[in-house]
Design a protein that fits this description.
79 residues, mainly beta, 5-stranded antiparallel β-sheet
């Protein structure tokens, strides 16, 4: 299951899991476990949402990461 960063038009990117990458004929993308890049909940989604379906027309581009790369996302940490 690839981990992706989805970049939307005029919005912050969302990190999530995909079962399969979208094909050129797809119109929708189904993202599991949506979260912000820092791991926090997406403010416009309910806290218990596990799958979100977005139209591909709203998406600028999708970054696909390897499974272990999720831990390499840099977030702001105060020590």
């Amino acid at each position: 299951m690839p981990i992706v960063i989805v970049h939307f038009t005029s919005e912050d990117p969302i990190v999530g899991d995909l079962d399969v990458l979208p094909t050129p004929t797809d119109n929708l993308i189904s993202l599991k476990n949506p979260r912000k890049k820092d791991g926090k909940d997406v403010p416009y989604l309910e806290p218990n949402v596990t799958i979100v379906v977005w139209p591909l027309a709203r998406i600028n581009f999708i970054e696909v990461m390897s499974a272990g790369a999720d831990e390499e996302i840099i977030s702001f940490v105060r020590e």
